[in-house]
Amino acid sequence: MRHIISFEDISPDEWARLYGLTLDIIARPGDYARSCAGRVMAALFYEPSTRTNFSFQAAMQRLGGGVIGFSDPSVTSASKGETMRDTMIMVSGYSDSIVMRHPCAGAAKAASLYSSCPVINAGDGGHFHPTQTLTDLAAITRLRGGLRGMSVGICGDLKYGRTVHSLITALARFEDVTLHLISPRQLACPKYLRVFMQQRKMRFYEVTNLEAALGSLDVLYMTRIQRERFDDPKEYDRLKGVYVLTARKLSLAKGDLLILHPLPRVDEINPDVDGDPRAKYFFQAETGMYARMALLLELTALPKLTPERDYTETGRLCRNPGCITFREDYLPFLEENGRCVYCDYSLKGD
Amino acid sequence: MRHIISFEDISPDEWARLYGLTLDIIARPGDYARSCAGRVMAALFYEPSTRTNFSFQAAMQRLGGGVIGFSDPSVTSASKGETMRDTMIMVSGYSDSIVMRHPCAGAAKAASLYSSCPVINAGDGGHFHPTQTLTDLAAITRLRGGLRGMSVGICGDLKYGRTVHSLITALARFEDVTLHLISPRQLACPKYLRVFMQQRKMRFYEVTNLEAALGSLDVLYMTRIQRERFDDPKEYDRLKGVYVLTARKLSLAKGDLLILHPLPRVDEINPDVDGDPRAKYFFQAETGMYARMALLLELTALPKLTPERDYTETGRLCRNPGCITFREDYLPFLEENGRCVYCDYSLKGD
Amino acid sequence: MRHIISFEDISPDEWARLYGLTLDIIARPGDYARSCAGRVMAALFYEPSTRTNFSFQAAMQRLGGGVIGFSDPSVTSASKGETMRDTMIMVSGYSDSIVMRHPCAGAAKAASLYSSCPVINAGDGGHFHPTQTLTDLAAITRLRGGLRGMSVGICGDLKYGRTVHSLITALARFEDVTLHLISPRQLACPKYLRVFMQQRKMRFYEVTNLEAALGSLDVLYMTRIQRERFDDPKEYDRLKGVYVLTARKLSLAKGDLLILHPLPRVDEINPDVDGDPRAKYFFQAETGMYARMALLLELTALPKLTPERDYTETGRLCRNPGCITFREDYLPFLEENGRCVYCDYSLKGD
User: Fold this and answer.
1) Does C154 score more than 60 pLDDT?
2) Using CB atoms, which residue from A39, A79, A85 is nearest to C50?
3) Closest CA to A136 of A14, A298, A263
4) What's the distance, CA B231 to chain centroid?
5) The one catalytic residue among A101, A102, A165, A280
6) Cβ–Cβ gap B285/C40 under 8 Å
7) Which of A14, B97, B185, B323 gives 20 to 30 Å between its CA and that of C35?
8) pLDDT tens digits for B215-231?
9) DSSP string over C25-42
10) Is A52 a catalytic site residue?
11) Is the peptide bond before B264 cis (omega within 30 degrees of 0)?
C-alpha cells in the first residue's frame, strides 16, 4: 500500500488492518491526537470539493499533523508555466502525503509517477474516488459487523456515477452479497461492470423501480440523478420522482435498513427521512473521516522514495479527451492490458 | 453554555470562569499549548472577516488544535445545491466547534438547530457578535480589575452598531456603571435599548458632543460612523469631525482613560492617538484572542449531542427580509415572546 | 537577529548557527515535531506564491506550530480601508512571526516598523527575498561541506533577478569564491553589484556563453530569462536557446557539478536534465524548507517587543514609484547613507 489511486490499491488484508485501526481511533481518539505530529499532508484541490477536503483536513489535524495546499481552482493559475510534474516533485518534498482532486481522469496516477510521498486520489474526473469506497465499506461494517450476506441496493445514476462503480467492484471481495441495481434504463450499469459481476459470480438484479426493490434490502445506497444526463429533459421530469426516497416509501423497508449516500444530496432523499433511525448518511460521512485518519496514519509513516521515472512508452496515445495526458503533454504513454494506465480508457478499439 | 449565539448565552458565572481562564492562559501559555490537541474547530465565514477569522484561528492553534473551513464567500457556491442544514450536520460531524459568520441575521441560531457540536456566532448580519463583547469586557477587566463603578462612553453609530448594542446589554450585569451615549441624533440608541436600560435602572446620558463628555469617562468606546447611514451626505460631512478622536481632544480626558475600538478603525481615531498610553484598542484585540482561547477550550471539550430537531412551529412567518429564514426555507418558524427566534424581529406588529 | 528583511540581517555567526540547526533538524526531525507547539506564524501573501508559502507553512507545521494568513491578493480588499500599519499591529498581536510577500519594494521593512513580532521578508517586489539565499547557501553547504574555493556560475537574467543579487552579495562572505556571471549583455549584472564585487575583491568573470563557462564550474545557478525584459522580442527568440541547460550541454560539465534553480523553472532547464544526478534543484527546494524551520524556531522564540515608532524623518521623499511609501502614505520618510530605508533607492541623484 503506497499510492491509493483506486480502491484496488488496498488489498483485503490492508482493508482489514485499516478498518481495525479505524475502530481503535474511534474508541480512543486521545491516543492518536499526536500520532502525526511533525508530519504534513498536502491537499491539492485543482477542483473545489469542500466536503472531501474538510474530511481529509480534519483527519490529518486530529492526528496532530499539519496541512498545506489549495482549495481553489484559480490557484492553479498561480503556478502558471509550471508542469504538474514539477509541482508534484516540489510538494512531495515538503509533505508526507498528497491528497489530490483534479478534473482530469488519471491525474492522481500521473502525480504518483513523480511524487516521493504517497498520493491519495480524492477524485480524478469521473474516474476513481477510492476513499469514498473506503468510507462506504467502513460505515456498513461499523453498523452491521460486515458485508457478508448483505442485500445491497444501489439506486440512481449507475451509468456515470463513479462512487457506484468503485463500490460494486469492492463488493466483489465479500461473500454472498446480493446487488439490486436500481436505475432508469438510460442510466443502467455499464456493460463492463455487468461482465465483471458475471465473472465474479456476483448475484445481481437490475430493476427500474425503487419501491419494488426496497423491501428486500439491508443497505440502500442512494445517488443523485443529474438532469444533464438525459437527452430529453421531459424524460428526467417524468422519472425523477421514482428515484426519490421519502418517509412514505420507507414504510416498505426493513426495520434495520441502512440508508447511505455519498453526499451532498440534493433532493433524492427527502428531508423527512433524516429523522428516521435508518438514515445513516451523516454517520457514514463521519465514519469517512475516521477511516481517512487510519489511512493517513499508515501512509504518512512510509519512508520517502524517489520514483524511478524510467518508463517504456508504448507509443499508443490515449484517445480519451478527458485524460490527463491531454493536459500534461510530457507524460509517458503507458498501457496495461490494452488500457491507458492513467484513465483506463481502452486503447484497442477505434 | 453550549451554543454562543448572543452574549446572553454566557451566564455571569460562566463569564467569571472564562475570564479567570483567560488570565491563566495569558500568564502561562505554555501550559495550554496542547490542550486542544486532536480537536478541530471549523471556521465557516460566509462573509469575509480577516480579523475575526485570524483571531479564532490563532486561538485554536495556540491550544494545539486544528482548523478547517473557508474564508471566502465564493466558496459557498462550491456547496451549491446543499442546504445549510446538511452542511452543518456534516461539518459538525468533523469538528468540535463551529465558528460562523454569515450575512443573514439568525444564521448562527439556525446552524445550532442542526449542529452536533457547539456553534459560536462570529457575526450574523447586523445582529449579534458575542465574542466581541467578550473581548471588550475582558480588556476592560484586565486593565481596571472590573467594570463596577465605571463611567463608560460609547461614541459613534449607536443605532446600527451591533457591537454597541451587545455591549450595552452586557454592561447591565455590572453594578454602578454610568453610560454616556455619544452620537448624532440620527444615529442615537434605538428605543428598545433605551427601554432596556430604564428597566434595568442603568444610569445613562445621551449626548451629541464627544468633547463635552470626554472629561468624565473612564472608558471611551469608539465606533465607526458610515456615510451610508445618512440620507444627506452633506450632513455626514458636517458631523463626522465631531466624532473623531484626536490627540488634541484627548487633552480633555482623564489620565487613566481607556480608549477602545472593535477595529478596524478607518479615521474615527486619528493615528496621532496611537502613541498615547491610553490607546488600548490593539491591546483589546490581543486580549480578544486569549478570551477566545478560553471559550474554545471550554466548548470543544463538551460531548457531542445530536440535536432533537423536534420543533413546534408557530406558523407565523418572519417579515425581516434579512432573516436567515428567507434564504433557508426549510427552517421551522419559531417564536419566543412574540419575536422571531432567529433574528429577534418582532412578529406582533405589522 | 530579529526582522529578516535582507540576508544581511543574518550575521555570519547566525548563519553558522542556523545551518547547524538545519542539519540537526534534518537528522532528527522527530525531536523538533513539537518545538513550536502553541506558537503561530502569520503568512501574509499580498501577492500569490504557492511555492514559498507552502515551504513556510510546511516548515512551521513540522515544528508543531500553527499558521494563520491569506494567500490570495483579493483578500487585501477585505481589509479595505485599513492601513498596513494597523494590520501589522493587529496580526503581530496574534502571532509569533510574520512571513510577508508584497508587490512593493520595502513593504517588509515598513511592516517591521509596526510589528511586535519578527517579520520575515518573503519577497518585496523585485527587491529582497532573503530566505531564498538562505536556501541556496544551505543546499550548497549540505552538498559540498561549504562554499570556500567554489567556482559558481550564475546564468540568466542578472540585471533584474532579485535572487541573484542577494546570492552574489552573500557569496562575498566566503573565501576564495570565483563567480562566472553568464547572461546576455542586455541583462548583465548592474553596476552597483560590479562595484561591490570589486570592493570586496571578489574574483568574477562576465561572459555571454553558458557552454564556454560550463566546464569550470562547481555550481551552476540557473535563472529564468523573461521575454518582457527585451525591447525587441526577436532578440529574445535569438538568444534564449543559449541560456537553456540541456543533457547534451551537461556533457561539458564536471562530474560533480551542482545544478541549482530557485524554481519554478519554465524551460531554462530541459526536463532531460532532471534524471542527471547533478540536478539538485528539487533537493535545494526541500533543503529550503528545513532552513526555514531553523529560522522559525529561532525567531518565534524571541520575546515580543513593542516597536518604538519614534522616527526622525528626513523630509526627502523616495522617488521610486514601486516603493511602499507610495502606497502607504503615512510611513515616515527615512534615509540611510543617502538611500531610502525601505526600497534602497538612491535619494541623492536627481
Assistant:
1) yes
2) A79
3) A263
4) 27
5) A101
6) no
7) B97
8) 999 999 999 888 877 88
9) HHH-GGGGTTTTTT-EEE
10) yes
11) yes
Cα angle C256-C19-C260, degrees, rounded to a multiple of 5: 35
Query: Looking at this protein, which amino acid is placed at residue B51?
Result: R
* Segments in chain C forming alpha helices (H): 12-27, 50-62, 84-94, 107-112, 130-144, 162-171, 191-199, 210-214, 233-239, 247-250, 281-299, 324-327
Please state, in angstroms and rounded to a whole number, the distance separating the CA atoms of residues B21 and B16: 9
Pairing mode, strands B335-336 and B339-340: antiparallel
The Cα–Cα gap between B66 and A64 comes to: 8
The whole-angstrom separation of Cα A212 and Cα A153 is: 11
| Exposure class string for A126-136: b at 16+ Cβ within 10 A, else e | ebbbbbbbbbb
Neighbours of B, requiring at least 3 CB pairs below 8 Å, are A, C
Residue B265 gets the label, from left (phi > 0), alpha (psi -120 to 50) or beta, of beta
- Alpha carbons A19 and A173: distance in angstroms, whole number: 15
How many angstroms separate the Cα of A288 from the Cα of each of A19, A138, B77, B90, B115?
11, 7, 23, 11, 18
Q: Please answer yes or no on whether A66 and C61 come within 8 Å at the CB atom.
A: yes
**Can A173 be counted among the known catalytic residues?**
no
Residues whose CB is less than 8 angstroms from the CB of residue C339 and which lie 6 or more positions away in sequence, other chains included? C345, C346, C347
Q: Which domains does chain C have, with CATH numbers?
A: 7-128+289-340 (3.40.50.1370), 131-278 (3.40.50.1370)
Ranges of H-type helices in chain B: 12-27, 50-62, 84-94, 107-112, 130-144, 162-171, 191-199, 210-214, 233-239, 247-250, 281-299, 324-327
Candidates B39, B40, B68; CA nearest to B53 is: B68
The model's pTM = 0.95
Report d(CA A3, CA A117) in Å as an integer: 8
What residues contact residue C231 under an 8 Å CB cut-off, 6+ apart?
none
- Each residue's pLDDT tens digit, B155-197: 999 998 878 989 999 999 999 999 999 999 989 999 989 999 9
**Grid cell in block for residue A341:** 494506465
Whether the CB-CB separation of A101 and A253 falls below 8 Å is answered with no
In the block, which residue shows the cell 525567531? Answer: C299
Burial class from Cβ neighbours inside 10 Å (0-12, 13-18, 19+) for residue C234 reads exposed
The amino acid at residue B52 is: T
Tell which residue, A5, A223, A12, has the closest CA to residue A118. Answer: A5
Q: Name the grid cell of B347.
A: 412578529
Report yes or no: A97 and A117 within 8 Å, Cβ to Cβ: yes
Q: What is the rounded average pLDDT for all residues in chain A?
A: 92
Among C215, C214, C181, which residue's Cα sits nearest to residue C196? C181
Number of C-beta neighbours around residue C17 at 10 A: 15
Which residues lie closer than 8 Å to A249 by C-beta, 6 or more apart?
A210, A211, A214
Q: B240 an active-site residue?
A: no
CA dihedral C272, C273, C275, C280 (to 10 degrees): -150
Chain B residues in contact with A62 (beta carbon < 8 A): 38-40, 66
Q: What are phi and psi of C178, to 5 degrees?
A: -110, 130
CA C18, CA C296: separation in Å to the nearest integer?
A: 10
